[in-house]
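quick one before i forget lol
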Amino acid sequence: MGKLFLLLVGLVVLELTVMIEVGSVIGALPTVGLLILTAILGSSLVRSEGLKTLFSAQQKMQQGEMPGREVMGGMMLALAGLLLIIPGFVTDFFGILLLQPWLRNKLADKLIGSNQFRMQMGGFQRTQSPFEQSLGDHPKQGGTTIEGEFERKE
């Protein structure tokens, strides 16, 4: 826990130092405007990349494959969005790096292959939801249909 705290304090100090330096070169108002602009543009880029990742995951699932890379990429996109929303140029830099598909795919492959994330990468079969049978979405062959009326009493 102590290492994480030191990392966060170090990041805050680094962000403030960079913001002060940038502000001294281009001015305070343009610096704030630039930080707001990166947050807005970053969030729209995260959204578009997220939609691409979602469609790719759906396509893999339709083919019967496990979308492991897409799931990891989606988590990295969420982290990129968080980094881009946090005010600061250093976090924006790392957020923009995580928006790059080639880097996300490389990191996802490395994380999936590591011992920390064990994912089964084989195919999968669709299992029936417990609600499908009870709702009558997929009635069994030779079933009996009972018609009737009901009255709600409260």
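fyi The radius of gyration is 24 Å.
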